[in-house]
Structures are given as C-alpha cells and as structure tokens.
Amino acid sequence: MSFEKLSLIAPILRALETQGYTTPTPIQSQAIPIVLAKRDLLACSQTGTGKTAAFAIPILQLLYKEKQAEQSGARHIKTLILTPTRELAIQIAENFRDYGAHTGLRHLVIFGGVSAHTQIQTLKQGTDILIATPGRLLDLWQQGHINLRYIHQFVLDEADRMLDMGFIHDVKRVITKLPEKRQTLFFSATMPPEIAQLANSILTNPEKVAVTPVSSTAEKVEQRLYYTDKTTKRALLIHVLKDASITSALVFTRTKHGADRVAKELNKAQISASAIHGDKSQNSRQRALTDFKGGRIRVLVATDIAARGIDVDNLSHVINYEIPNVPETYVHRIGRTGRGGASGIALSFCDEEERAYVKDITKLIAQQIPVVDGHPFPASLTAPVKPAPAVQMRQSSSQQMAGKKKNPHHGKRKWHGRPQGKQAQ
Ligand code: AMP
C-alpha cells in the first residue's frame, strides 16, 4: 500500500515525500479513506502508531478542496483538534505544518501555562485549523476570541488521557459549543466505560478502527529489567549510562521532585541532563525538549504527564527509573522509543516495592521482561524473584541500532509495523 493509493492530492503527497514517508501505517491506511468520505470515526489507537497523520492528512485534503471551491476569502476555524497536553498540541501543530506545507492552509495552536496575548493576536488573523488544550480553549472562547460556529470537523485526541488528567468535563463543555452538524473523529488508546459512553454520545454512526493493541508495542521494543534497591537506583543509572551506545535516553520518574533530583545528580556526574515536568515554565520545557532533540543533552528526565506527546526521532533508550503503578503507562512509556516502526530499548529499574507493578505489567504485555544479571547494584533482599529469562549486558543490540541508523535508505522511513488487526496473545 502506498500513499498514492489513498487518493491523496499532489500537495500532500509532495509533503509526505519530504518527510520520507513511503508507506502508510495501519491506522493511516484504514482511517484516511473514512475521514475523506466525511464519516465519523472511532479509533482505538495509541501514540506511536502514526495516528496524528491519520487524521491530519485527510483533514488537510478536505479543507484544501473546500478552500478551492469557496468564493469568499473569509477565514473561519473549520477544524478543531482537542488534545490533553501542551507538548502533544505542539506536536500535532508540527505535523500540520509538515503535511500541509503546500496547501496554503493555516493552523494555530493554543494551550495554557503561557500568556494568552500572542495567541489572541494570532487568532485575530484567522486560522483554518485550531489545535487546543481544553482549558485555554474555553477561556478564550468565553472571552469572545474564538468562534466555534463554523467548525465542521472535530477531533478528540487521546480521549482516555483527558479522563485521566481530569479534563473530561472541560471536553464535554467544549462539545456543547460545537455545531451539531459536523464530522467527529475520536481517538483513544483505551476504551474505559466512561470514554466509550462519551464516544457513543458524540459520534454518529461511526466507522470503527482498532490497531496496534497496547501489548504489541511492547513486542517491538527490546526490554530489560534490573532488580535493585531504591537507594542504589541513582548509582545504577549512572552506571548504565556509561554505555556510549545510549545516545539519547528518556528517563521516567514518578514525581516532579524526583525528576529534578535525578537530572541534578546526572549533571553532577558529567552526564548532560534536563528535567521536564508540569512545574517548569513552558519556555524551559520547550528549551529542554529542543536541546534533547538537537542532541545537545543526552538525557531528558520526565514525569509521565510531561512526556505525553514527546516525539523524538531515533530515541535510543527509555529508562524507567521508577516503575509505573498503572501497567498501561509502562507501555506508553516504552512506546516513546521504537516509534515510526523503529526498534528501541527500554530498561526498567525495579526495587522491592515495585515488584507487584512489574507483575501487572508482564500480565498486560503477556511476556516476561528479561532480567539483567551481574550488574553492580543488585537488590539486597533475598526474597525470591520470579524467574525470567536472564540476559547478560551486551553491546550487540545497541550496536545493531547504531548500524540501523546508518542504513542505506537515505532517511526514507518505511513503516514496518505489525500487520493490522493482529492481536497479541
Ligand atoms: P504518532 O502516533 O502520530 O505520534 O506518530 C508516531 C511517529 O511516527 C511520528 O514520529 C511520525 O512522524 C511517524 N510517522 C507517522 N506516519 C509515518 C509513516 N507513514 N511512515 C513513517 N513514519 C511515520
């Protein structure tokens, strides 16, 4: 399957070529025709599957065609994309910029935590596509800066995350402001009952698409588990980062304070690191992210919420400094590496209290995580550790990764994901 087969217009095909995309991902090949046919869509698809392009590409095409047919030059917001975090909003805006480079369509991104002044000024100039987090959207709508009457495509992105983050009421309020007659695209990685209910209430006769079940992300990523103590995690992290093949690592901590502490310790050990979390100003988060993407810092330490939407090409390693207590979060985290069909490595540090979390995770991903034996900071307790296939610290997989980067495809990115609909055991 190629993008040409999806009946995409030349300006978009040209942009995809510039991005180096050759093959649509499963969510793209399924969702694009549905969106182009102006149908409602219910997509069960997590980040890392190419879902942003799955809605951005056909929306750009529909708007482009509409614009050509239009007589008046007035610019109204026709498409609204609601997304839970600032990082994700910026990420989506970058996608619209890239795929829409030759369409002449305008997009604008608004989110909280920064001054609204510039956003209001830019809104006055008019936009076709608005990407927003719910709180800031409602604020600016209430102040009369946003007219939602012309919306005819509405995308709700990461609906389950909206629920987790307590934004669901804001989302419902936004929906009451939208015209009844519209196309709605609903994306969620999981479908807890409240989300399924919301989908039911806002979609009209939707086409349903489900790709890459949560557990299959785990199959693409090479995982390793280090049993250690809470008190030795810092030393273990510094030890692990001596491996030069770890070119860029996203380290997850549970708390903001923990993220700051780990970043500080790493810098003390001459390992360049920054922390990114909700208490940091938007500017400092953006700076840390840009430095990380640009290779100026090697380690980004993040909390789960801050990491949502971080999209770094060629992220070599994800390190779970602390094991999440929600097993799906583990899959979201390790899905940061191994994106766009690439492979990646995820290391997890587990102390005694976290063993129960690991048990839940292995149940969800339906596989054991290989345990690294023989590292210098083993767990001090003698309680039995459920046996899992042991691996020795090797360089080989990382070297394979490094080799992959120098592949002969001249930067062309081909989707090597699993065949659609294939379920993990
Ligand atoms: P998303 O699920 O939207 O967060 O996308 C995950 C990553 O996959 C992003 O880095 C995209 O740039 C990349 N991507 C999306 N579609 C394709 C494609 N067809 N081929 C290669 N990479 C892609």
Automatic annotation (TrEMBL):
Catalysed reactions, semicolon-separated: ATP + H2O = ADP + phosphate + H(+)
UniProt keyword annotation of Nucleotidyltransferase present: no
Domain DEAD-box RNA helicase Q positions: 1-29
UniProt region (Disordered), positions on chain: 386-425
Cited SUPFAM superfamilies: P-loop containing nucleoside triphosphate hydrolases
GO cellular component, one term: cytosol
Motif position, Q motif: 1-29
Name used for this protein in its record: DEAD-box ATP-dependent RNA helicase RhpA
